[in-house]
Amino acid sequence: MKRRLKSGTPLAEQIIADHRDHEDGPVEPGRIVTATPDRIYVQDGNAPTVARLYEQYGFSTVFDPERVSFVFDHSVLVANVDMADRMKDADAFAARLGVDVRARGQGISHVIAAEAEWFTPGALVLGSDSHTCVGGAFGALGLGMGASDIVAAMVTGTTWLRVPETVELRITGTPTRAARSRDVLLTLLRERGQEPFLYRSVEFTGAWARDLSSDASAGLASLGVELGAKCVFVPDAEGTIPTGTAQGVSRIEFDISGLQPTVALPHLPGNTVPLDEAAGTPISYVFLGSCTNSRLEDIAEAAAVVRGHRVRQGTQFVVTPGSNDIYRAAMRAGHIDTLLEAGAVVTPAGCGACVGTQGPLPARGENVLSTMNRNFRGRMGNPEANIYLSSPLVAAVTALCGAVPGVEDLP
């Protein structure tokens, strides 16, 4: 259900106040409140832990089966027997609970949450994945939580929250033509660090943020947790998701005038440099996917780059759409054929290679360029691989070059 959000009050505080389980004083930063979520979803990676906690404490039901979902996205193509057994047990557990199940191949939980309209303005959504913060691109308070908190919410229909402080992050200026929303956020992380944003609600403001496409907004919001934020909010082009202007809200201005495309070097997202500083780095594995950049706009941009060309010999280019709906839309538009003709490998929808629970895994010593959100050592299943991060535009050009391109190499 969509709720009307008003300007002049921090969005996180509005949404928490609207979902309080009972009146208990004002909703203000630092207070602990009990709230009732609109939706809870569990991803398959921690579903077994959720099941163990249920067994440990003798739980057998959820507060509302229609408002709890299990999404099988982290292990779509399972190539490990132990993991296959875990997925089998998770399937059986979800069936016993009688909850909504989104099976393997339907897509990433956060992408499905937007498509299914679990994320709507004013909604409070809990997910057992840190990137649930993507809900802020749709006006929802999306909160990633660990298994214990998710179990408590599944059983009781309530959760406890410490109301976060709010930071208005005003983006000014205009970046270069080839810079994308993730370039802005990762540059911000490099220059300002996490300290100004830790456990805060970050509200993006300014013309640049307001004019982002829905797909670009979602990619930006997905990276909010890399800032250390509790949640983020991105306005839409029509201004239907207002931003708070209350007194007492801290404000940060970040000028992106002339900002160039970037690459995050191993092994931290904040280890970001302008593209030209990484140009020439050999890359033998390019991955386009994850909840950050696996949407139709991302796939379309990659297809436009590789059309009429071939992926460099010795470089594999793996594309994993964020959902089955995105996959089919990309097929109808001809993007999948274009990618296949260029030599890319297109996999079923899901998280793909992002967390290393399924292939393709990188080889020892291999340099990987990925559009995902994190490049921690071992993130893709091999601690001896080097993971670089970039936008889909840079990733697609890299797949053709076999090396990180320079700005002058971008179309």
Q: Using DSSP, what is the number of strands? A: 18
Give the C-level CATH assignment of the largest domain. Answer: Alpha Beta
Distance between the termini: 42 Å
Biggest beta-sheet profile: 5 strands, parallel
Give the overall shape, derived from the CA principal axes: globular
Structural class: alpha/beta
Count up the helices: 13
DSSP helix fraction: 25-40%
Give me the CATH architecture of the largest domain, please.
2-Layer Sandwich
Average pLDDT reading: 94
Q: What is the number of domains?
A: 3
What does this structure look like?
- There is one protein chain.
- With 411 residues, this protein is an alpha/beta fold.
- The protein has three domains: 11-162, Aconitase, domain 3 (2-Layer Sandwich); 165-255, 3-Layer(aba) Sandwich (Aconitase, Domain 2), CATH 3.40.1060; 266-409, Aconitase, domain 3 (2-Layer Sandwich).
- Helix 2 crosses helix 5 (147-156), helix 6 runs parallel beside helix 8 (214-222) and helix 10 packs parallel to helix 13 (392-401).
- The chain has 13 helices and 18 strands.
- 54% of the residues are buried.
- The strands form five sheets. The protein has a five-stranded parallel β-sheet with strand order 4-3-2-5-6. A five-stranded parallel β-sheet has the order 16-15-14-17-18, covered by helices on one side.
- It has helices at 11-18, 47-57, 81-97, 109-115, 147-156, 181-192, 207-210, 214-222, 275-278, 296-306, 324-332, 335-342, 392-401, and strands at 32-35, 39-43, 68-71, 100-102, 124-127, 141-144, 159-162, 165-172, 200-205, 231-233, 250-255, 262-264, 272-274, 285-288, 316-319, 345-346, 367-370, 386-389.
- The longest helix is centred in the first third of the chain and has 17 residues, at 81-97.
